[in-house]
Amino acid sequence: MTTDQPTAAASADQTASAERVLSEVAAILRDVIGEEYVVDMSIEMDTSFNEDLELESIEFVTFADRLRETYGEHVDFVGFLSEMDVDQVINMKVGEVVDFIVDSAHDAAPSAAR
Amino acid sequence: MAEIVANGVRLHVQRLEPKGGAGPDSPVVVMVHGMVVDNISSFYFALGNCLAGAGCDVICYDLRGHGRSERTPTGYTMADSLADLSALLDALGVDRPVHIVGNSYGATLTLAFGLANPGRVASLTLVEPPFLIEGLGEEMARSLTQVLAAVTDDEVEFWLANSAGRAVTRIARSAQALLKETSVAEDMLATPPFSREALAALPMPVLAVYGANSEIIDQAEGLAELVPDCTLVVLEQTTHMVLREAADYLRDLLRWWLFQRDEPIPHHQVRGAGFDTPVWVREMIPPPDLNGEHRTASLSAAAGSPADA
Questions:
Q1: ipTM greater than 0.90, yes or no?
Q2: Is B167 within 8 Å of chain A by CB?
Q3: Is B143 part of any domain?
């Protein structure tokens, strides 16, 4: 391997940012769904949009729109969604979206991770 | 920019652009979904993000009364829908000719928009358009009656109330509200017939896509014969739900249509065809004699018995 091994500090940093992004994403999801059953529901990395949240496909459209507003240009949701079909999207777990956001932020500011 | 007021109606719009934004030469592609049990999400996932990723400036929206757009009590005639789309393009400041992609009734609407606004349209892609010269309104009303019967059936209602998933229930409730609380059914019945003369003079290129197993496949030839510059694609083993069943191929087809039309048209490969489906099933001919020696041979092969001399 010729790539740099991440330092312990950088890796801890990324874990912290994944936790922060997960809580932001969970808050957006609760808001988009807007029904009582999600208020007390625990939304974790392995929560499924389809089976656990029963998200309607148009709610995912709104969710992606809200993510775009929150995370801005450097998180390329168009690119993320462009090779998936609707079943693949809706069968994702929340963690896959969180990881994509964390990795995009990481790539946008590589020096911060070193 | 999720909401735009156009023609006095609040419309839900998603504008999708390539990374770094669309350029002045990016094709502008507008997507028009189907009626009653459809919304913005079908095109958003099947083609919207993909074509934006390929360099297009994509506009997806919910038709009046559908998805997240305002459900007005009236205003669902063909003329209203065309006025909504014109006003939406004005509100978004789109002044270049656009490529419009429509599905099902949205495709019929797309064709009508091309006839009414030839100067605003660069090309039309019609996925499974109901297309009749005579009786189009009756055809639309008939299919809406079927939908209404399905969503108001007692057994369906019991299922929705008790065991259907949340997402399915919400889609059905939205269709029920549209059909019961608005004039959409009467407005559809009043859909005017297409004019043969106007169709024969349609100036822009048209790409028409039908499923070979669609219940409206017999309307495809009529369309292809009347429209002067029409490329007709019929997809084997596909029904009216082309957008759902052949999304991968439609992505290739639209990239070809928008960016590489001087190259050969992409080939539609049916997954698994000719591999595990017997010819007599695919061709719908009577099966071979199942009691013949063919079956005996395969049975003994399956049992692993040594070949008799």
A1: no
A2: yes
A3: no
Backbone Cα Rg of chain B: 23
| C-alpha to C-alpha distance for B94 and B14, rounded to whole angstroms | 14
Question: What CATH number did the domain enclosing B90 receive?
Answer: 3.40.50.1820
How many degrees, rounded to 5, is the angle at CA B202 between CA B201 and CA B203? 105
> Per the domain annotation, does B127 fall within a domain?
yes
Q: Is A45 on the interface with B (CB under 8 A)?
A: no
Q: Which domain holds residue B41?
A: 3-133+194-259
Closest in A50, A55, A78 to B17, CB measured: A78
Q: Are B202 and B227 in contact (CB under 8 A)?
A: yes
Please give the backbone phi and psi of residue B230, each rounded to the nearest 5 degrees, phi first: -120, 125
Number of structural domains (chain B) is 1
Q: What is the pTM of this model?
A: 0.85
Residue-wise pLDDT tens digits, A23-69 = 999 999 999 999 888 888 899 999 999 999 999 999 999 999 999 99
**Token pair recorded at residue B245:** 């069943």
Residue B276 lies in a domain: no
pLDDT tens by residue, B239-284: 999 999 999 999 999 999 999 999 999 999 876 554 556 666 666 6
Distance from CA of A70 to the nearest CA of B (A): 13
